[in-house]
Amino acid sequence: MAIKCPKCQTDNPDTAHFCSNCAAPFSVPEEISAATETLEAAKEELTTGSTFAERYQIIEE
Questions:
Q1: Is the pLDDT of residue 40 over 80?
Q2: What's the pLDDT band for 23 if we cut at 50, 70, 90?
Q3: What is the pLDDT of residue 8?
Q4: How far apart are CA 44 and CA 38, in angstroms?
Q5: Per-residue pLDDT at 9
Q6: What is the rounded distance in angstroms from the CA atom of residue 61 to the CA atom of residue 50?
Q7: In 3D, which of 48, 42, 3 has the Cα closest to residue 26?
Q8: Residue 54 CA from chain centroid, whole number
Q9: Above 70 in pLDDT, residue 29?
Q10: What is the SS3 string spanning the chain?
Q11: 10 near 20, Cβ under 8 Å?
Q12: For residue 56, is it left (φ>0), alpha (ψ between -120 and 50) or beta?
């Protein structure tokens, strides 16, 4: 099965994320776009020397 580019009408393999002719992006399924999560921390928790998200150390403001 091929994906037809909506911009230039070029046929692309169904595994492509971008058009091989014009580089137009193909739409991303919702289940993939919902895979990220935003982490929030109160400002007072982010002091010099503290660690954020278990991997980032605050060096200075």
A1: no
A2: very high
A3: 95
A4: 18
A5: 93
A6: 12
A7: 3
A8: 21
A9: no
A10: CEEECCCCCCEEECCCCECCCCCCECCCCHHHHCCCCCCCCCHHHCCCCCEECCCEECCCC
A11: yes
A12: beta
Q: What is d(CA 10, CA 5) in angstroms, rounded to the nearest whole number?
A: 5
What is the token pair recorded at 57? 């150390």
Amino acid identity of residue 54, one-letter, is E
Q: Name which of 9, 29, 28 is nearest 20 in CA terms.
A: 9
How far, in whole angstroms, is CA 60 from its chain's centroid?
A: 28
* Tokens describing residue 17: 């994320």
Residues in the chain: 61
